[in-house]
Write a structure and sequence with these properties.
The protein has 227 residues and is α/β, with parallel strands linked by helices. A 5-stranded parallel beta sheet has the order 2-1-3-4-5, with helices on both faces. Helix 1 links the parallel strand 1 and strand 2. Helix 10 crosses helix 11. The chain is globular, with a radius of gyration of 18 Å. The termini are far apart.
């Protein structure tokens, strides 16, 4: 049965109860069924795996990080469409969301009237990004020198090296957020020794000499240490 014949199932992840209540009201009677509401990244991934929803609405800045949750859900529940819902209009956040596997990026100031139609469009296969952000993003990409985005180098690494595990992606995401080894361990509930082992594995798989180099590669920045 397609989503055209039934209500589309939705996972809602946001640590603000008022936001979740507003989204719930906006989607009621519009062809959606919210199957789970959570407040952090780990719970979002767990509920996505449990329910395999048609659509996952993820807050960017919820505890645990929306980008990391997007990546994990995209890897583990690939059939679910993921939409990052946020207050951030940053081009870097938009790029990170789509690279992690999102199908849409929406600002929280979207009207309750427009939200259901936008989500139905995403379920139909369209990508969604706010118009103002989209225009700035195109201008930003056009203005960047070609050397600032070495896509061929990253593609070679992806072909020639094993893919990172879901846990390694989590560690790399948190390192990119400038967390210390101890803080990464605390966030993920693992020991510092385990974090260091993951970092070592990440560096080996990416073929980089340091954790800083891995973070720069993850962020799409040119790494002067690599030739």
């Amino acid at each position: 049965m397609s989503t055209a014949d039934r209500s589309a199932t939705v996972l809602l992840a946001d640590d603000h109860d008022a936001t979740k209540a507003g989204i719930r009201l906006a989607l009621e009677g519009e062809g959606f069924e919210i199957v789970a509401e959570v407040s952090n990244a780990d719970a979002a991934v767990a509920e996505a795996v449990a329910h395999h929803p048609d659509l996952c609405l993820l807050d960017l800045y919820m505890p645990g990080g929306g980008i990391g949750a997007t990546r994990r859900i995209h890897l583990e529940v690939s059939e679910s469409k993921i939409v990052v819902l946020t207050v951030s209009a940053s081009e870097d956040d938009v790029i990170a969301a789509f690279m992690a596997g999102a199908s849409g990026y929406m600002l929280k100031d979207i009207s309750a009237e427009r939200l259901p139609a936008a989500l139905h469009a995403i379920l139909a296969g369209e990508a969604a990004v706010p118009r103002a952000v989209g225009r700035r993003l195109i201008e930003e990409l056009r203005a960047r020198p070609s050397s600032s985005w070495d896509g061929s180098r990253l593609a070679r690494r992806q072909r020639d090296r094993p893919e990172l595990t879901a846990r390694e992606w989590e560690v790399l995401q948190l390192l990119a957020e400038r967390l210390s080894t101890a803080a990464v361990g605390q966030r993920l509930g693992i020991s510092e020794i385990t974090v260091r082992r993951h970092i070592s594995s990440i560096m080996h798989k990416l073929g980089v000499p340091s954790r800083a180099s891995a973070v720069r590669l993850f962020s799409g920045q040119h790494d002067p240490e690599e030739r």
